[in-house]
Amino acid sequence: MTRKFLISFCVLIAISGSALAQQPQPTMNAAISRSVSTPTGSQDKKSLYTRLGGYDAIALVVDDFITRLATDKRFEKFFTGFSDDSKKRLRQHILDQFCAAAGGPCVYTGREMRTSHKGLGITEADWDAAAKHLVEALDKYKVPEAEKNELLAFVVTQKKDIVEK
After folding, report:
1. Measured between alpha carbons, how far is residue 122 from residues 64, 96, 117, 130, 135 in Å?
2. What's the pLDDT tens digit per position in 29-63?
3. Cys-Cys crosslink for 116: which of 8, 43, 55, 162, Cβ 3.0 to 4.6 Å?
4. What CA–CA distances, in Å, run from 116 to 13, 89, 113, 122, 141?
5. For residue range 54-108, what is the model confidence (pLDDT) as tens digits?
6. Which domains, and CATH codes, for the chain?
């Protein structure tokens, strides 16, 4: 049951290690500026996936987000007993869900949120704390406000299926 929670909850806010926090990290702005061309008269709107900088840029945020959750005492109970393989699978589920939600080529193959979280007793306080970690991860990589808000809007749509108390 704990594994179900982590896979879905982390995706959500959502949604891997203190060593990452100590290493210098590239900003998402560099990836974004490479992937977004200057608007023209016809101005086709780029997908959120493209505006975020693609798969690698989203992976940076997901890795930082997971690290924040895993090192927060409030979420310790949800990570207890995870094997290295389970941690990798969790990371991939979160990455795939964010990537797909942003319009990228990924396919999320995890369970639906309601099924994954049923009976875990996730509170509003749990949700808020995890959401704060996601925002901090997005801010660390200097995700522009519009793109951050679009991704967070997706995350918020999942709340009704995750928070039980």
Report:
1. 22, 23, 8, 11, 19
2. 444 333 333 344 334 689 999 999 999 999 999 99
3. 8
4. 14, 14, 5, 11, 29
5. 999 999 999 999 999 999 999 888 778 889 999 999 899 999 999 999 999 999 9
6. 2-16+26-33+50-161 (1.10.490.10)
